[in-house]
Amino acid sequence: MTSSGVPWRYRYQYLAGGVNTGGGWETWNSPSGAFATLYMNDSDTHGYIPVFTYYELLQSSPSTGADELSRDYSNLNNAGTMKAYYTNFALLMTKAKSFGKPVVVHVEPDLFGYMEHKAAGGDASKVSASVASSGYAGFTGLPNTVQGFAWGLLSLRDAIAPNVILGTHASTWASGVDIGMNTDPTFNMAADADKVAAFLGSAGVSANTHAGTFDLVFNDVSDNDAGINGRWWDRTDTSLPDFQQWLTWMTELRAKTARPLVEWQVPVGNQYFDTMNQSSGHSQDNRAEYFLSHASGLQAAGIIAVLFGSGGNGGSTYTDAAGDGVTNPAPVSTFQCNLCNNHASAWSDDDGGYLRIFVGNYYTGTPATAPDPPTNVTAIAGEASATLSWKAPFSDGGSVITSYTVASSPATAPVTTPASARSATVTGLVDGTSYTFTITADNAVGPSQPSSASNAVVPGRGAYQALTPARIMDTRLGTGGVPKAPIGPGQTLNVKIAGQGLVPATGAIAVVVNVTATDATAPSFLTVWPSGVPRPLASNLNWVRGQTVPNLVEVALGSNGFVSIYNAAGSVDVIFDVAGYVATPTATPPVAGLYNPIVPNRVLDTRIGIGSPKAQLCAGQTISVHITGTPNIPSSGVSAVVLNVTATNTVVAPSFLTVFPTGSVRPLTSNLNFHPGQTVANRVIVKVGTGGSVSFYDAKGHTDVVADVAGWFTDGTTSAGGSLFLGVTPARILDTRSTTSVGPGSTRVLTVAGRGGLPAMGDAVPPTAVVLNVTVTNPTANSFLTVWPDGSTRPLTSDLNYRPGLTVPNLVVVRVGGSGAIDLYNAAGSADVIVDVVGWYG
């Protein structure tokens, strides 16, 4: 490739041999999997993007059956084979992650076409496959279907190697009609492509409840040169089969899958050189000639790349694979010979000489084209705005990208960003109105086609809807449709929130969940953020090995109602208990679910008899605490309250605390987890129950409980006003590790307005309260941290409790002072404080 002088963009290689045969790609170099690393590095050295065609299933053992469909299907349903398959695919992802640059992986050509035959009109969820039943760690919650198979591969890509661009395969014969040989002029190409697109959509192209979706759709025109298999297409497009009907099919496939297309393994044979004499290794074909002279037609159909290569079985290759040095035999002219094989050879491998000349001419003599469209466009709503994120196009069209342009529907003024940008904010939107967005990439030639539309978002602030707590996800049990397995080091798990635990399937923009990390094997941290946007530099939970740590998380929902969880190190089980959600904004402001922040006030302290008798909670005991009517909390019209709950002086046994509405059945959830000798705090947003009270349950041992109320939500029965919530992608606004720690008895003033996605105090809608994840690390003494509105007297409450050697996080919902700032007080010793903003009320 390099000696040809052609500026090739991509270089592809089969990974084959079977996953359990002892001769697969992982054995081609030592140590296991080194071949992939060598290939990626070598490709990168020469300026090529590496492409792997992962073709392992058919060649794996036992592969029983009379035809390829039967052999693929038998392996798909063999638990041992599939466990080895997933392990092998994960190895490839691990090597790709280490490479760290874009890698294209093309999954199993032919397989999805065969499985569409097997489905007989159904979708991929109707065809069996061993996924969860394979016993592969992390796949417990996946369905045992071809759909689950595709979802599993995508989850491995997402968890291990997000730099991998993953492609599925669309076979032109998948519907049962081989459109590559169709001679019926009345045949409906678009309807046929729709069938194939629908099946692929059910197999990881349109949606995936466990991870992302496929980025590309591959297609091949023929297994070999037309001179071998007789699959000639009319280069003049006047008689069938021709190129135009195939382009019609591909255009519809692009429209219905909304994915860029890659034309793969295009035969190398040509009708230009007289070496193409129809002997083995020197077969004729006309597709390379047609494609290079109709590049604009391919681009219009949504094809972003053409990969040339031999399908084997005696086909022409780019080099003189036959080793016969054939140069000038008598010319052979067959089937519409365009250039009649009458050009003398210049090299002994003139089978590939045609590409050497004419692809080189294409790059040097043909003007660059517009780039491909951007991909993975995701929107997150803001106040009268939306923030978009995206991935760069697969190809820049041969000319460097100069900018991106964001367009909205309904239309507003377009937003243009520099070429380095991967996000943009669109302002001037109408709150309560649904919008989608498309993005074009621009180069010197012009704009790309618009990207696929983003997820729909409704700008504005929403009202909080409190729920009775419910467990919606537990990796220990596979609850919530997630794999029954801990989250491994550096892995990301996507969790469906919409439609779970009384959270509506539509109509929610954010969720409040109590997140618990347990069974950790190493010190680590957890980040929770809206799915579909880049992982932020933020954290929600921190722990050491063996700890069980909870923290309340309020997070905006991302694509398709999902949130993403990232674990930094070791493995850890994660539990989600939902406490409420924020409703989609409406044009008419609601009267219920409005937030009213207050300066924190202590409503419970069992150590001194505030809110309850002066006595510890005992094992299995529940106490009810009256909340309404306490200072700054009205006696009626309250739907829920924001508490900071602390367990301290615990003796006898490790335990957990559950906080729930008085009068309702105690849910099977937890809010705090603690051991004897610990003082543990956690934020709780809880619905108010009978008599305006909230109940506290202690599972084991004896413990003191302290609760400080920081605000309340309206229930719509009174005329009380309040603020609405808007989540943001988490952003770090303070980290004293890079400046100066907070000393003993000292207060740090932190401006929050106008930072981390929050509006300024002078904006049309300033923040009244801010939602933060506050983390204390490197403390030198037993101490506590208090957070309160700047300009107010420091209250006799606490938000975090810590001792030397610990890193402790807690969610804080605090009123913003008139200056746009909050205050943070550290009681003793010195401590570093980290603040990540996750949302605001206004």
Question: Would you write up a description of this structure?
Answer:
Helices cover 16% and strands 32% of the residues. It folds into five domains: 10-219, no CATH class; 375-442, Immunoglobulins (Immunoglobulin-like, Sandwich); 464-583, Jelly Rolls; 591-719, Jelly Rolls, CATH 2.60.120; 723-842, Jelly Rolls (Sandwich), CATH 2.60.120. The radius of gyration is 31 Å and the shape is elongated. The chain starts with 9 loop residues before the first strand and ends with a strand. Residues 327-344 have low confidence and may be disordered. Helix 2 (68-76) packs across helix 4 (111-119) and helix 6 runs parallel beside helix 8. It has a seven-stranded parallel β-sheet. Strands 14-21-16-19 form a four-stranded antiparallel β-sheet, with no helix packed on it. The chain has a four-stranded antiparallel β-sheet with strand order 15-20-17-18. The chain has 842 residues and is of the alpha+beta class. It has eleven helices and 37 strands.
Fold blueprint:
Layout: E1 10-15, H1 34-45, E2 49-54, H2 68-76, H3 79-99, E3 103-107, H4 111-119, H5 146-160, E4 164-169, H6 189-205, E5 216-219, H7 226-229, H8 243-257, E6 261-266, H9 287-293, H10 295-300, E7 303-308, H11 350-365, E8 375-382, E9 385-391, E10 403-409, E11 415-418, E12 423-427, E13 436-442, E14 464-474, E15 492-496, E16 508-518, E17 524-530, E18 541-543, E19 549-556, E20 562-567, E21 573-583, E22 592-605, E23 622-626, E24 638-651, E25 655-661, E26 672-674, E27 680-687, E28 693-698, E29 702-715, E30 725-735, E31 746-751, E32 769-777, E33 783-789, E34 800-802, E35 808-815, E36 821-826, E37 832-841
Parallel strand pairs: 1-2, 2-3, 3-4, 4-5, 5-6, 6-7
Antiparallel strand pairs: 8-9, 9-12, 10-11, 10-13, 14-21, 15-20, 16-19, 16-21, 17-18, 17-20, 22-29, 23-28, 24-27, 24-29, 25-26, 25-28, 30-37, 31-36, 32-35, 32-37, 33-34, 33-36
